[in-house]
Design goal:
- With 456 residues, this protein is an all-alpha fold.
- 72% of the residues lie in helices and 0% in strands.
- It has a single domain, classed as Up-down Bundle (Growth Hormone, Chain: A), CATH 1.20.1250.20.
- The longest helix is centred in the middle third of the chain and has 43 residues.
- Its main location: membrane.
- GO terms for molecular function: transmembrane transporter activity.
Length: 456
């Protein structure tokens, strides 16, 4: 079926739910390590506490992609039922995460939160490819990235913003500050509202051959066999993109899990106080602990705000590409390569920043790579796979996102950064090196249609 080209606002409505998804991811990425440290986690334990996130993605996204390919409802469509289910579960998880009284409960809620976000996120990638002709794929994914950038910037600044308007950023030992709790509550509302907006403003195309679609649904369920067969039959371009994704997402997982301890220590000089180092029964020592903890919480707010800059610069990156791709073709390969290399230098520069304000430059460069990661690989992939298997292939493609994160969580981050020394800031150097490798791996991509849409 020849799909008509859509206007900007139709693509905007179709992608608007990603605002809520990114609120969830930004709050998770910017503040879960802070919550873990507040509840007593040692910094070297943090990557392992994060393992729930990639593990759930590894399991959930291929399953949801496969199921959504096999779903059709005359009113709710193919992908939208999964948006709604994921939004309900994610919003509930966001409400409960910062109220966790103990570390194991926070880790458990992270598991639930990430699984729920993945239920909503995977069908959004497939929806862009479902509803747009091949010539608009880059445009569609770039608009999606623009919305993601907006969500990242706003959500990353929420704890700082609510503390500025009077919500307390102080809390007793082992208690998450109210500013973080309020920010997560706002995130829950935005998540649900933005998903509902997309559901009610966007239509989906029915299967091209409804009779064949119904026959396939009635066949014996070959769920696992189908997924295994699709993994075995991955196009070569998808495998090459997988290499790029591996190093890209190793870098960003390292940032999400280790930026807060690394930057509060190295740049702000206010590391998280370790309870065992204080005699909390001594009034002077208790006062010192509370002073140090308040300084750590304030620095963590600043780290979160600086991290929000990468959302802002990814938004600017996406905005420029939106204007350009609405009229002209782009070379996805070289744009992605350049953006990843800039992000790599941004991470490495963190080691050398003379003052906290210079972190704005680091995260600006990282934002260029983030904006590209969220659009260019999917635009290249969608032009190299069977449209009838768009959902399941998009889900399988997620393996190249979550496997590096699992490796990082199981010791990859700690092992690699300690090759450079014990200082936690070395984790950011490892993230930079990983992004540089990812950038140069773009030279592997040779499929002309993946690099730039070719008129047929």
């Amino acid at each position: 079926m020849q799909k008509p080209k859509l206007g900007f606002w139709e693509i905007w409505n179709m992608s608007f739910g990603f605002l809520g998804i990114q609120f969830g991811f930004a709050l998770q990425g910017g503040f879960m390590s802070r919550i873990f440290q507040t509840l007593g986690a040692a910094k070297d334990d943090i990557p392992l506490l994060w393992i729930a996130a990639p593990l759930t993605g590894l399991l959930v996204q291929p399953i949801i992609g496969y199921l959504s390919d096999k779903t059709w409802h005359p009113r709710w469509g193919r992908r939208k039922p999964y948006f709604l289910i994921g939004a309900i579960l994610s919003s509930l998880a966001l409400l409960f995460v910062p109220h966790s009284p103990v570390l194991w409960m926070a880790a458990g809620f992270l598991w639930i939160l990430d699984a729920s976000i993945n239920i909503s996120m995977e069908p959004f990638r497939a929806l862009v490819a479902d509803n747009l002709p091949d010539s608009q794929r880059s445009y569609g994914f770039v608009v999606q990235t623009l919305i993601i950038g907006i969500g990242t910037w706003i959500a990353s600044n929420l704890p700082w913003l609510v503390s500025e308007i009077g919500v307390s950023n102080e809390a007793a030992q082992g208690v998450v500050p109210m500013s973080v709790k309020v920010a997560f509550g706002i995130g829950a509302f935005v998540f649900m509202a933005s998903i509902l907006y997309t559901i009610f403003t966007t239509s989906e195309y029915p299967p091209e051959d409804m009779e064949e679609f119904e026959r396939e649904k009635k066949q014996k369920n070959r769920f696992l066999l189908d997924i295994i067969e699709n993994i075995g039959n991955m196009p070569l371009t998808m495998k090459k993109l997988g290499v790029i994704q591996f190093f890209s997402w190793f870098a960003f997982f390292t940032m999400w899990s280790m930026a807060n301890p690394a930057l509060t220590e190295h740049v702000f000089h206010t590391p998280a106080p370790i309870e065992a180092n204080y005699d909390l029964n001594n009034a002077t020592q208790l006062l010192q602990f509370n002073t140090d903890n308040t300084a750590f919480q304030e620095a963590s707010n600043s780290v979160g705000s600086y991290m929000g800059i990468y959302g802002l610069s990814s938004m600017a990156f996406a905005l420029l590409l939106t204007f350009y791709t609405s009229k002209k073709r782009i070379n996805r390969k070289y744009i992605h390569m350049g953006a990843l290399i800039l992000g790599g230098f941004g991470f490495i520069f963190m080691y050398f920043v003379p003052s906290p304000s210079w972190l704005a430059l680091s995260f600006t460069l990282i934002g260029f790579s983030w904006g590209s990661i969220l659009s260019m690989p999917y635009a290249m992939l969608s032009s190299a796979i069977d449209p009838k298997r768009m959902g399941v292939f998009m889900g399988i493609f997620n393996m190249f996102i979550v496997i590096p994160q699992i490796i990082a969580a199981l010791g990859g981050v700690n092992f690699t950064y300690k090759l450079l020394g014990e200082n936690t800031i070395n984790a950011m150097i490892i993230a930079g090196i990983s992004l540089l490798i990812a950038g140069f791996c773009n030279l592997l991509i040779t499929n002309p249609n993946a690099i730039s849409y070719q008129e047929k």
